[in-house]
Design brief:
Layout (H helix, E strand, L loop, with lengths): L4 E9 L5 H9 L17 E7 L2 E7 L9 H16 L2 E7 L6 H12 L6 E6 L6 H14 L5 E3 L8 H11 L17 H17 L7 E10 L5 E9 L2 H8 L4 H18 L3 E9 L7 H6 L9
Parallel strand pairs: 1-3, 1-4, 4-5, 5-6, 8-9
Antiparallel strand pairs: 2-3, 7-8
Helix pairs in contact: 6-8
Length: about 300
């Protein structure tokens, strides 16, 4: 009988480095929201992927950056917490941005750690630079830290992802699987549904709305006809933001609802009836319950 292996892999890096895209490509399903805006991943989302007899549990951490607000501080603490708990760490950097000050700070923090887990380097978005520049970057970054292995990947296109997944599987400790073979995420479906809606809000509103909004799944009802009714609340901090989310004649919220509903239906494999409400809650960024909903610790923002 083949020996099973299982372990946790933390993906760390600057915001927008492609961690969520890589996680989704590895798992083969959308379990982490992907947008072109930074800092979209708030909770430590775990995606589960099988590679032979190995079960790789990915911790998709928020991007590591210099925190300013309570939410920022809680996100960065969650990111390093995810790394500390993992069996393997993968530092993801963007090929075209190179060795930024942010990456240097992350590497400096890695040097201070006394963890024994292997740390790999994954240079992402390799299609954006020439081969010679890639090799120079790999040499430069490895000169800063003794990475166990370096991978050249394109998370979006899938280049190099199989090699990374195989290496991770080989490095994991022997042991029983943590989750059933067909389970792809350990987030409750209510939270995944909230993340899907938040992604659609972020994509649609671009620069109009700051990050001071959150989505909560208030009710979830599986109906006898095989469909699901989902009621969600979108919290914003100002009345003016409510108007932006609703749009003229409710056009914006209808568009967001349609896109979110279609994705939820595809994810669940059956029809979804989605009902969205927008509420103003001026102090939600200081509300501990909202942090718990996002899988973050309110105290980490102190």
């Amino acid at each position: 009988m083949t020996e099973t292996k299982a372990g946790f892999v933390a993906l760390i890096g600057e915001p927008n480095a492609g961690k969520s895209t890589l996680l989704n490509k590895m798992v083969g399903a959308k379990v982490s929201i992907v947008t072109h805006k930074v800092q979209t991943t708030r909770a430590r989302i775990r995606g589960v992927c099988m590679e032979g007899a190995a079960q790789i549990v990915f911790v998709d951490t928020p991007g590591i950056f210099r925190p300013r607000r309570r939410l920022d501080r809680a996100m960065v603490t969650a990111a390093w917490g995810g790394a500390s708990d993992a069996d393997i760490i993968v530092l993801l950097i963007e090929a075209h941005r190179g060795l930024t000050e942010g990456v240097k700070e992350i590497i400096a923090a890695l040097k201070e750690r006394d963890g024994q887990q292997p740390i790999a380097l994954a240079i992402n978005k390799i299609d954006k630079v020439k081969a010679e520049a890639l090799l120079r970057l790999a040499e430069e970054v490895n000169g800063q830290f003794p990475f166990a292995k370096t991978f050249m990947i394109s998370a979006e296109r899938g280049h190099g992802v199989d090699d990374l997944r195989e290496w991770l599987a080989g490095e994991l400790p022997a042991g029983p699987w943590f989750y059933p073979e067909d389970q792809i995420a350990d987030l409750p479906m209510r939270q995944i549904a909230a993340e899907i809606t938040r992604e659609k809000l972020t994509l649609r509103l671009h620069e109009e709305l700051p990050y001071q909004m959150t989505v909560e799944t208030e009710k979830w009802e599986d109906r006898p006809d095989g469909s699901t009714r989902i009621d969600q609340l979108i919290y914003v901090v100002r009345d003016g933001h409510k108007g932006i989310v609703l749009g003229k004649g409710g056009e914006t919220i209808k568009s967001i609802s349609k896109a979110a509903r279609e994705e939820m239906a595809e994810f669940l494999g059956h029809p979804v009836h989605l009902f969205l409400q927008v509420k103003v809650r001026a102090n939600w960024l200081e509300d501990s319950e909202r942090y718990t909903e996002m899988g973050l610790d309110f105290k980490d923002g102190d």
